[in-house]
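I am going through a labmate's work and have reached the protein record below. What it holds is a sequence and that sequence's fold in token form. Please read both lines and tell me whether the tokens look consistent with the sequence. Do not assume that whoever made the record got everything right. Thanks in advance; the entry in question is below.
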Amino acid sequence: MKLLTVIILFITLQASSKTGEPKYPPKNNYITSKIETQAPVIDGVLDDKVWGIVEWGDSFTQSIPNEGEAPSQKTSFKILYDDDNIYVGVRAYDTEADKIEKRMSRRDAMDGDWVDIKIDSYFDHRSAFSFMLNASGVKGDRTIFDDGQNIDYNWDPVWYGKATVDDQGWTAEYKIPLSQLRFGDKQNHIWGLQITRWLFRKEEASTWQFIPQDAPGLVHYFGELHGIEGIKPKKNFEILPYTVGNYEHYEKEEGNPFATGSDAGFGAGIDGKIGVTSDMTVDFTVNPDFGQVEADPSQVNLTEFETYFEEKRPFFIEGKSITSLQLTMGDSPISRDNLFYSRRIGRNPHYYPELEDGEYTSVPDNTSIISAVKLTGKTKNGVSIGVLESVTAKEMAEIDLEGARRTQVVEPLTNYFVGRLKKDYNKGNTILGGMFTSTNRDINDPALDFLHTSAYTGGLDFMHQWKDRTYYLMVNTAFSHVIGSESAILGTQLSPQRYFQRPDAKHVSVDSSRTSLSGHGGTVTFGRSGNGHINYVAWVTWRSPGFELNDVGFLYRADDIMQIAWAQYRIWKPFSIFRSMNINVNQWSGWNFGGINTYNGGNTNFNMEFKNYWSLGSGINAELSGVSIYALRGGPALRYPTSGSIWYYVSSDSRKKLIMTAGGNNHKGADNSSVFQNYYISATYRPVNALSVSAMPSVSMNEQELQYVSTCEYGYENRYLFANIDQTTLSLTLRLNLSITPELSIQYYGQPFISAGDYSGFKRITDPKADEYNDRFVYFDENSQISYDQDEQMYYIDENSDGTTDYDFYDPDFNFKQFRSNLVIRWEYTRGSTLYLVWSQGRTGYDTTGNNSFHNDVQGLFDIFPHNVFLIKLNYWISV
């Protein structure tokens, strides 16, 4: 608390001190004209006469690396418009035209030389639409939110762009339909405008409107586009019907009528977009298909907490920042806590049916999404709106016993609702927002009584910035309320996020008669961002014991109060041998709601880029001794030793055909309690501009003396059993991207993954908070207290050595092997319409040998019978 007081005093003094006025140049203005004759042909050649009715815009300034200096190469542009489109022509001069980097890639994977047009058509000084085009004609697009702090790379509007290289450099020509922009209904318009050029061979950025790298924000510094008059907002209507056919081939299982070795199917659905008003859009989907989506990476999770997976489905990715309320910033596990986690919608069913001898079952892999609707936009009064409504189907498992069939509900019919509002005040310097979510399940089968019937969350977020947005104060707060049967709420109390049953917890207790549970969480943040080399931030975040988000949100853990302070010194102008450098310092502490100090730690790290374009980074972490209220899985808190770790990486010149990165992480706990080592190499090779091949092998070695095994009853007491673990994990991530044209690409992703864990030195926790590490547990005597049955794969414990088994547990050794791959051919055969050809293969195997044998595991992995899925998907874009 003394340290926190010092930090607060320091940042308060900093905030109250006089800040010099930032020396930003005046805003540039560009005046466009309306086309009264024939519009330009979009062919990448600026030879249409109509371009002559407007003047060239230039006055570009270098931003990276030599901020404020003249660019190495000149850039000019022109902008025209008519009733339906905005037209942009860019001349990127280059005195060494033969060195222009024309890299072919799939859409949004921007590489080589490119230009970027950003338009703040709302003119709210906080959001913008970005349209990128590289020298090969590859398109990229994104939406920018929160004055540049958040970017959505998954926005895919329909627009046109071509590029051509000539002896003067290269040219880019755009046609952006007004239907793809959002703007108010008025006679005269002023829009924010920024144009950026990237010169690949020098890693140099130049911009039309100069914005210093330490500027606290982005969009509100844009230049302005004038001269647009009389255009009307387009209430566009777009639908994208699709058909999909699939064939699966897998290992046949004798006697199982559901595993015949092959399946085939056909489906259809519709995605759509409706412009409700000039600035509000409805996206909808009926029976969506996500078969072309890349598989999740393989993992082995030995912790008590849920694994977080990134969203990859297009419908939920686009505009996700509008339907999000993240409770805490940063990159710690709790920073993923959010009131909306879209992976909950369409998840695998919660229940797996209990089978009798001789029964077989077929359970759906995922819950079907019947329909989903999303309303997003921003009104002329500065109100951002995001609403999502989705219904998922009641899913049934089919069970067979010698030809007799029955069904069992495994997932109820469920409705999900997400509502989000944000309002800008004081020219975008003050923002107030709110969010509400609900999950309602139609549960009418006792097997599903463990699920909440209803779950509600709500939150408020506030941010105020001052002194030209140099300083900011943010407050996020949220509440939750879940309703269900006594068994459902009991399960929530006993869940890994909270463990109310902990015997040494005085502030929580289990109430088996409860039918609801409520909680709250939030964060208070103060920081400085920009207008100088030093940035810092400090925050306090909390999650009450009863807080629960995991019906339609994500909560890592409850019963936690965390304080963090972070400071950075940043150098962005080249000096000595460096192009840029960042140095960071962090400090953190944590408590539970019972007032127990659970953890304390700190970190210092740096990363730098040299003038030869190589980069280097490293960091050192220190974690002081603390207690874990989760390690014993509902038992008393366990004290853990101090530990330290170091991470590091080095990367080669990213402009070359071959790019290499190597790095690692080494961790060691005091008293030889733990040793963790991870090493990786990443190599990306581009033999020609259209082809990129990458591989990233990695190996991890994990040795822990206190790895949880099981909790067993012994009389009226619980025994918390742990062991030494020697775990080795090997993985290889492979990617291939072949872009034949900007519209036709082939992508491959593959990941063989192997992890083996060998358990030994079994022990039980005796005094979990003892001062001395070795006094916290006692090993079982291998001669008199523990025995192993190879056939049953069981350990038997005779704790009092009287010749009678007191309790037992399964052999925890494991060998997990998995291979996942996707091959996707994507062809945009006409504007907005796409054909997908997909081959997906999976192999998964598991046994309990625990042997770390690379050769045997690799051989065993590819001996596993593969599960192959082939599909063809065709959609067609229709715009009215």
